[in-house]
Amino acid sequence: MRRQLRTVFSTVTGSVAAVLLVLLVLLAIVGPIVWSGRAGAIDVAKAWQPPSGEHWFGTDELGRDMFARSLVATRLSLLSAVAASAIAIVLGVPTGLLAAMFGPRLTSAFQSVVNVAIAFPALLTAMFVGTVIGIGVPGAILGVGIALAPMFARLTQTLTASVVSLDYVAAARTMGVPLRRLVGRHVLANVAEPLIITATTSVGTSLLGISALSFLGLGARPPQYDWGGLLSTGLKAIYTSPMAAIGPGALIAVSGIVFSLLGEVVAGAFGDNQSSRRFGRVARAMARRRRRAPSASPSDFLLDVRDLRVGFPSENGELPAVRGVSLRVAAGERVGIVGESGSGKSVSVMAIAQLVEHPAVVTADRLSFLGTELSTMAPAARRRFLGTNLAMVFQNPMSSLNPAMRIGAQLAEVSRVHSGLSRPEARARAADRLAEVGIAEAGHRLRQYPHEFSGGMRQRAMIAMGLMETPRLIIADEPTTALDVTVQRQILDLLLAINRDAGAAILLISHDISVIANVCERVVVMYAGVVVEDLPVASLLRAAVHPYTRALIASVPDMATDRSTDLATIPGRPPSLDDLPAGCPFASRCAFATDRCAEMPRWPRWPTATWRPAGTHREVHCERWSCRARPDRPVWRADRRGRRGPGRGRRAGAGPGRRVRVGQVDDRPRGARPGPVHAGTITAGGQEVRRLSARDRARRVQMIFQDPFGSLNPRMSVGGIIREGLEALGELPARERAAEVTRLLELVSLSPDLAQRLPAASPAASASASRSPAPSPPAPACSSPTRSPPRSTCRCRPRCSTCCAASSPPNASRCCSSPTTSPSSATSATTSR
Amino acid sequence: MTTSTAEVGESPASAGPRLRPARGRRAPAWVRSAGWKLLRLVISIWAVLTLTFLMIQFIPGDPVRLALGPDAPASLVEERRQQLGLDQPLVAQYLDYWGRMLTGDFGDSLLSQQPVSLLVEARIANTATIVVLSLLATSVLSILGGLLVGVATHRGRRPMLKTGFTMATGVAAALPDFLVAVGLVFLFAVTFTVFPVAGASGADSFVLPTLAITLGSAATMMRVVRSSTAVVLDQDYMLVARAKRLPAARVYLRHGLPNLLTAALTLGGLQLGTVVTGTIVVENVFAIPGLGTALVQALITRDYPVVQTIMVLLASAVLVLNLLIDVALGALDPRSKRQGG
């Protein structure tokens, strides 16, 4: 709450709104005390007087002072609004909470009722209630309260459902945390914030609603009066004494605006515009910076980039994302760019492709493609030139295709725009290109929408889209990162085939050096916005000299990696862009760094050094945890979006059987997750999981989830999360738990200081692993634990069996003694059926 | 709205990508989807009818005595009770109510003794004109304005424009329609006398009522459209559209517009429902003889048959409008069309 208050007062709008709100509340308190005498004084002789020094807003039909009446009416107007909101919250929030917590069936029934209720106009609902319980203030309050309740119900339900489906609630459930605590600590705490914002705005909505009813004569009736009632009185005399209507009207308007502004400020609607003065100054200074005239000499290379720089303006000055990258690609060459996330590799190619958007600023000494300097070309000519000669493939095929357009239209428009083909011609070419990238029944597929394609097929369609014209260069930005390993291979093979057959050069970006080594002839290693090494792939193992390149090579696990040693990881993190060291940016993480590294601005040949993975030797004992399901039927009942029904699983993107099997350990249905096991049994430690109590199950099986950030409650300290697990298990006496938390944190190589910190500040995957406390040997079931963190944090704990679900065989084989392959029908089903 | 109805409406066999068209027997997806939407409309209208029927039953005490006042003779109260059928058993009343509503006989007004259908006939045209004009004005203004401002302010461009837009629409959206209406009356009755401020005498008498409703709802919708535009412009497929080097107009209108309309209609569709009730308030300010003025009069005088009829009509209008929005969403978003939303 303190944070919200700060947010409110940090903006001018927020401060004004807050001050006005305080004034309104004060007026509501003192108004009736001070002015009620004047407001009630009848003087028929002075009826309908225009505004004067004595009566600022004039008088009404009985000669009463409209100004005093407006001030007195503040209390009734505000109180009724607050009461109506309270009714809406009391009715709506518990309903929404119940609907979200108890099963998908109740949720969907609830949703259909609430959706109709919410679409039903509030004014009609309020009038309905008013008719039944009689016209007056209580009728109006109850009417508006009931009318607003469905909004709270739906908001609570959707918020809760989204929280419940997060991994940290699943994790707390697996640990056997009781329901009461689950709702309070994990669910309510995380949905409270948006609910408070809505409650603020709903006071404003109620105020306007009740005022409207009173204005129509359906709310406060004499002798009671609120602003709405006063406004309708004033309207009668609008020709002679307009202030009588304008006065109360202005009060209604101001309060309505105050509440809606407050809600908006708290919700951060004003916080997201980067319009701070400092930011604007930096952006303008960057935009003014004199562009260097690019060198005119023609280049023999297909792509020739010299000293490319990309900067983003920020509050703290310019952030140099790319700091002088030079890159050359020959015709037909396959070049890979490798680097950690944030190394500037994507930004570089986006700048080359002229796709970097405002407010970033791009400069380069030379940016020549096919011998033409791109930065000086006229926009229309450049659009046509790049549209026909350059193709791009992006990282996430799930979101790169327009969901509202048929695949055929998306492909065909490229040639219709750039080559002026007719509709049938473009269509025929699209069918031809789809077939070329290995999509069967292309003619039929053209009529489908992207959501009817699997992930691998969408990426093929993206590539086909690039082939509609005759590209000389294909830029592929992490084209396989979002795909499963088996599909990855197919996509890479396809790119290779295009390079071979069509002669298009390929610029492949990846954070995975093994992918680059498989596809490319030359590799460019980037770190913190600069190229640290550029060498042929053939000599990668032999001739790589920069310690960062060597670290990348060493951290690739393969099937042959010795399972008994720790994975090589690169300690530390890349430097942040607003605090770059003067010398080698890698120096702070480098085992070979010397004083010279802090000064050297460029990278000469490094003295060759023997590279040895750091870390301690740890013995791991793994044992397969038995998990059976009937192979003739899919184990999952729901696809990723959690809809139920047989056969749904067939089309799910990435072989959900894997995850579902592991997830079944927690066999209660939850929001967007698969339903309970409907065939087969799961046993752990010789007992069927379903028969175990929550506590016993938690003792035997623990989960480590794929997304470490999702699986830790952002509002609890790391120590609190771990302690909660210990409490749920009930093994240790309360006073020993703190010591155990420290021990567990150390076990996963984390500092015990982290116990006080929130998860946002800790290396999340490790913390997630340590939450599974180890009284008796449990089996932590991991679901792709290393997929999202850049380097492997998966380190199996001693003395416990693990069942690790991973899409990459080397990762699984590192952890586990006997990997089982999930019968993944996901990729084959969609292509073959 | 679409997601939930998708869950209610979908049947298992519609899942999964299908290379060949569905084999026999099953109706095509859009037929099933339209069927589900119609069914939902029918159920909703049934609920509205039943609730308005029960409204009189819910009133504590004797509703007729309440309506006619304490001075009315007992014989008159009894006569009106019989006229309303309140002396019949509940089930018989309910069946009779349905029979009458389906045949368009809405009963007689308690006060004037005129058939309610006559009243409705005389007034529905004014109300419909205001509602349709306001809906059109709201949609056109909010889509054009929201898209233009959304594109112009995307990614921190023109921060001043964005701040101004947020402030202006924030204030406009926070002003209730009755207040805007009163303001317009003040302006045009006192300062400029361009448009008539009372009655429905000609085409120009609808200008101010439409303006009063449109200002607030267009401001709200415009904000929704602008923020949807910002979200849609950040989507990967918009980057891809630019990477395909399509002309700007094609990028925004062909790739952006359908997607942002889906988002904006899902979020802002409810706003269009409030346009229908806005007419109740605005008719009263401008003294237009429409359903809204009749409803408020009937509510104050407890003329139950009139209240029931107008509530049913306005509620059905909102429900039909929501159905139309749903159909539009289905047409715009192929995913919801498939899944029978």
UniProtKB/TrEMBL annotation, chain A:
Residues 759-773, 781-795, 804-833 have a biased composition (Low complexity). This is Peptide ABC transporter ATP-binding protein. InterPro entries: AAA+_ATPase, ABC_Ni/Peptide_Import, ABC_transporter-like_ATP-bd, ABC_transporter-like_CS, MetI-like, MetI-like_sf, Oligopep_ABC_C, P-loop_NTPase. One of its GO terms (cellular component) is plasma membrane. GO terms for molecular function: ATP binding; ATP hydrolysis activity. PROSITE patterns: ABC_TM1, ABC_TRANSPORTER_1, ABC_TRANSPORTER_2. It is a multi-pass membrane protein; Peripheral membrane protein. Belongs to the ABC transporter superfamily. Pfam families: ABC_tran, BPD_transp_1, oligo_HPY. PANTHER family: DIPEPTIDE TRANSPORT ATP-BINDING PROTEIN DPPD, OLIGOPEPTIDE TRANSPORT ATP-BINDING PROTEIN APPD. Residues 74-263 form the ABC transmembrane type-1 domain. The chain crosses the membrane at residues 12-35, 76-101, 113-135, 191-218, 238-271. Keywords: ATP-binding, Cell membrane, Membrane, Nucleotide-binding, Transmembrane, Transmembrane helix, Transport. It comes from Phytohabitans suffuscus. GO terms for biological process: peptide transport; transmembrane transport. NCBIfam families: oligo_HPY. Its main location: membrane. The lineage of its organism: Bacteria, Bacillati, Actinomycetota, Actinomycetes, Micromonosporales. Residues 305-553 form the ABC transporter domain. Residues 637-681, 759-833 are annotated as: Disordered. It is found in: Cell membrane; Membrane. It comes from the Bacteria. Residues 640-651 have a biased composition (Basic residues).
UniProtKB/TrEMBL annotation, chain B:
GO terms for cellular component: plasma membrane. The keyword Membrane applies. It is found in: Cell membrane. Its main location: membrane. The chain crosses the membrane at residues 38-59, 128-153, 165-194, 206-225, 260-286, 306-332. It holds the Pfam family BPD_transp_1. It comes from the Bacteria. InterPro entries: BPD_transp_1_N, MetI-like, MetI-like_sf. It is a multi-pass membrane protein. The keyword Transmembrane applies. Coiled coil: none annotated. Residues 124-325 form the ABC transmembrane type-1 domain. Residues 1-21 are annotated as: Disordered. Keywords: Cell membrane, Membrane, Transmembrane, Transmembrane helix, Transport. GO terms for molecular function: dipeptide transmembrane transporter activity. PANTHER family: DIPEPTIDE TRANSPORT SYSTEM PERMEASE PROTEIN DPPB-RELATED. Belongs to the binding-protein-dependent transport system permease family. This is Peptide ABC transporter permease. It comes from Phytohabitans suffuscus.
